[in-house]
Structures are given as C-alpha cells and as structure tokens.
Design goal:
CinA, single chain, Alpha-Beta Plaits, 12 strands, MoaB/Mog-like_dom_sf, Competence/damage-inducible protein A, 6-stranded mixed sheet, 9 helices, FLAD1_M, 2 domains
C-alpha cells in the first residue's frame, strides 16, 4: 500500500463485483458516485475493475489493487444469496476467517425475528479483524479491513455507506459538510432541483439519502466541499431551488467541518 504525508497523492481503486453488471442486466452507477465522493475528499480514483462472481478472480484482483493503492472500495456481493461471495473472497485475500458479527445479528434479529434463516445470516459475516461500515439507509452494514472498504451494490445503500468511509480517508484538505433535510417529499420531487444545483457546482459532492420511518419520509441532502464560502452559497441556492419547485418542508439541520 502506498504511504506518505498528507501532501502526497492519495489513491484509490474501485472493484465492482457482479455478473449482473457484466451481463448488462444492471447498469452500474456506483463508480461515478464513488469517484465524485473521493474527489471531494482529495483522493484520486486511479483504477476501476468490474469482475464476475468468481471467488478466485475476486481474491486475485483485490490483492493486486490493495497493494498498489492507498484504498480499495468494493461494491456488490454481500447479500443473502449463494452467489454473494465478496465477504468470503475478502477474508481469503487477508488470510483470515469469517465470523457472524453480533451487532449485525442483533439488527437482523430485530428485523426478521423467527424468520432469520441461514441465508439472511450470511449478511452478518465479517472478516476477523475488520470493522463495520455504517448503513444509514436500510439493511446490515458493510465492513472494512486493512485498506479495503466492502460496500453494498445497491446504489442508494452504497451512497449511504460512503458517509462512514469519508472520515476514515487520509486527505490533504479539509472537506466541509452541510445537510439539508426535506420532509414529506420523495426523491422524484426533489430530483430536478437537486440535479440542477449539482450541475452548476461540478466540483462539489451532493448526495440524496432517503429515510422512512413512523414519523414520515423524506431525504437528507448532504453537500460537501473544500470551499466553505461556496458551500454556504450552494446550500442557500439549493433551499431556494427546492422551495421554487414546491417543496415546503425543507431546512438545514447541521453544519460541520
């Protein structure tokens, strides 16, 4: 793995795992979102690979990438079915065993109760020595071990997991974050104004993270930038654009460096 001070180039690779991507049945959008997210954090995406659900190929690619770059982000293959083998391959690449993480088992038990079968328990498997990557959207978390982050393949869930990846990355510039909360409006309503603001500020990262619960639904819109002045102006621009589109219940809920 590359190393050095914060002033040096920090690099990453993305490993996209899944037969459905290679067959064309599913169109990948994760690479674009990861590249934008890493860019805001001062990390250069240097390589991306898409490989099938074949254990040996995943292990080989992962070992090559993790020794070449500072970070590797994998997407896909951590679900409950037999072909979800990413956790197995990551563990093999690091020469460790998998175990059922008690925190994930507790989450799954709370959701499924007596219906927590062996297939669903597969999603609780984590390599020994690894840590969890939070999942603010739905389902179990991802995990990280060494310089590898293993995330879900579902785009909305993957983007949510990235929120817990960013603070762990080494970068040379402070990235500021602000969150605008929209309540009572779905992503279909906010998509157009959000896209317009994003296109007007291509150097920034704007993410939409939907939430659902007993108190209602909506989205948290997270804006990130190294320029605090541009960030403040963009937050105001986004709020105005949302209100102009008929979104009434919108407010900023946090401002943090």
């Amino acid at each position: 793995m590359a190393s050095g001070g914060a002033s040096e180039r920090v690099t990453a690779a993305v490993l996209i795992i899944g037969d459905e991507i290679l067959s064309g049945r599913t169109q990948d959008t994760n690479l674009r979102d990861i590249a934008r997210y890493l860019g805001v954090h001062g990390v250069d995406l240097a390589e991306a690979r898409t490989i099938p659900d074949i254990h040996e190929e995943i292990v080989e690619a992962l070992n090559a990438l993790r020794h070449k770059y500072d970070y590797v982000i994998t997407t896909g293959g951590i679900g409950p079915t037999h072909d979800d083998i990413t956790a197995d391959a990551v563990a093999a690449a690091f020469g460790v065993e998998l175990y059922e993480h008690p925190e994930i088992i507790a989450q799954l038990t709370e959701r499924w109760g007596d219906q927590l079968n062996s297939a669903r328990r597969r999603m609780a498997r984590v390599p020994r020595g690894g840590d969890l990557v939070k999942n603010p959207v739905q389902g179990p978390p991802g995990f990280t071990i060494g310089n590898v982050f293993t995330l879900a393949g579902v785009p909305a869930i993957m983007r949510g997991m990235l929120e817990d990846v960013g603070p762990r990355l080494r970068n040379g510039a402070v990235t500021h974050s602000r969150t605008v909360r929209v309540e009572g409006s779905g992503e279909g309503t906010i998509a157009a104004p959000l896209e317009a603001v994003a296109k007007a500020h291509p150097q920034m990262s704007l993410g939409s993270y939907p939430f659902f619960g007993p108190d209602g639904f909506g989205s948290n819109l997270v804006l990130r930038s190294r320029d605090p002045e541009e960030l403040s102006a963009t937050v105001a621009e986004l709020v105005a654009a949302l209100k102009a589109a008929g979104v009434e219940n919108v407010r900023e809920v946090e401002a943090a460096a």
